[in-house]
Amino acid sequence: MIAVRDPNGFRPLVMGRREDGSIVFASETCAFDITDTKYERDVEPGEMIVVDKNGMNSYYPLPKASPSLCILEYIYFARPDSSIFGESVYKVRKNLGRFLARELPVPADVVIPVPDSANIAALGYAEESGISYQSGLIRSHYIGRTFIEPDQKIRDFGAKIKYNVVRNVVEGKRVIVVDDSIMRGTTSRKIIKMIRNAGAKEIHLRVSAPPTISPCYYGIDIPTHNELIAATHTIEEIRKYLRVDSIAYLSVESMNRAVMDHKGGGFCNACFTAQYPVEFQSELGNQKSLFKEYQVEERVVY
Fold first, then answer.
1. This prediction's pTM
2. Does residue 283 sit in the same domain as residue 247?
3. How far apart, in Å, are the Cα atoms of 191 and each of 120, 182, 227, 285?
4. Is 80 within 8 Å of 120 (Cβ atoms)?
5. Can you spell out the DSSP letters for 22-56?
6. Angle, vertex CA 269, rays to CA 86 and CA 282, nearest 5
7. What is the secondary structure of the chain as a DSSP string?
8. 288: domain range?
9. Is residue 106 part of a domain?
10. What is the CATH number of the domain that holds 164?
């Protein structure tokens, strides 16, 4: 069995050990909880671990690179019951919500999340602001994540049947809707329309990440630049398109502070800043020769 992590560490990879001594690898630690596996450590960026009948060997066949851990793993992709990059996803998301409430307060009666990935950020927002947290949107778990669907008609249909509003939570209320991110804006628009039709007095959208302005070239299927609503529209234009009373995004600075409160930096936030840590066009062409050109460092692990 061979496990390899990219030199920049964009994606998480963790290693655990079972009681019988067998080694287990996973993207997130939540996988260990259901397999009776004890977390041992993260696989380091650029590390290759080979497990065979003779034991486990660790190699470093790739050039060292600056850590560029994907910050969107904390914001959106990872499960809240996991630890990635050495820190609890739950803690980081709650921290993002707290920073969002401090930076972008608004008078309201209730805070509701767009489930499920915004649940913890909304809880952090509610606790920091003192506004009641309620589950005003119910999500069908038979429907997957809509922004990564390849076809717009599929995304539209998925958004219609994925969520339903709890009317007595929002009717006649000033509602803060917390979402983790906005890509195209199509799903957000449909959700806002549903909440408005359920009788919400005011709707204030708060996003626990900065505007997504650039695609990802490191393993996440983020839409092209022209499809990203924040790349082609002003905040006011987005507000009008979504038909909310106000919209505000967490700043890049607050996002970085919220995450770095739990981890010492070294994150990739290119989807929010367009500052790519790796020149993807030139680097991808060189990948085939890296193993041949670099001196392999070996470390035996018992």
1. 0.85
2. no
3. 19, 12, 19, 42
4. yes
5. -EEEESSTHHHHTTTEEEEEEPPTT-EEEEETTEE
6. 110
7. -EEE--TT--S--EEEEETTS-EEEESSTHHHHTTTEEEEEEPPTT-EEEEETTEEEEEE-S------EEHHIIIIIS-TT-EETTEEHHHHHHHHHHHHHHHS----SEEEE-TTTTHHHHHHHHHHHTPEE---EEE-TTS--STT-S-HHHHHHHHHHHEEE-HHHHTTSEEEEEES--SSSHHHHHHHHHHHHTT-SEEEEEESS----S--SSS--PPPGGG-HHHHS-HHHHHHHHT-SEEEE--HHHHHHHHHTTS-S-EE-HHHH---SS-HHHHHHHHHHHHHHSPPEEEEE-
8. 2-65+278-301
9. yes
10. 3.40.50.2020
32, part of any domain: yes
Assess whether the previous peptide bond of 116 is cis (omega < 30° from 0). Answer: yes
- Taking the chain (302 residues) in consecutive chunks of 10 residues, what is each chunk's mean pLDDT? 96 96 96 95 96 95 92 95 92 97 98 97 98 96 58 60 94 99 95 98 99 92 89 98 98 91 76 90 46 44 37
Domain count, the chain: 2
**Is the same domain home to 28 and 105?**
no
Q: Are residues 198 and 58 in the same domain?
A: no
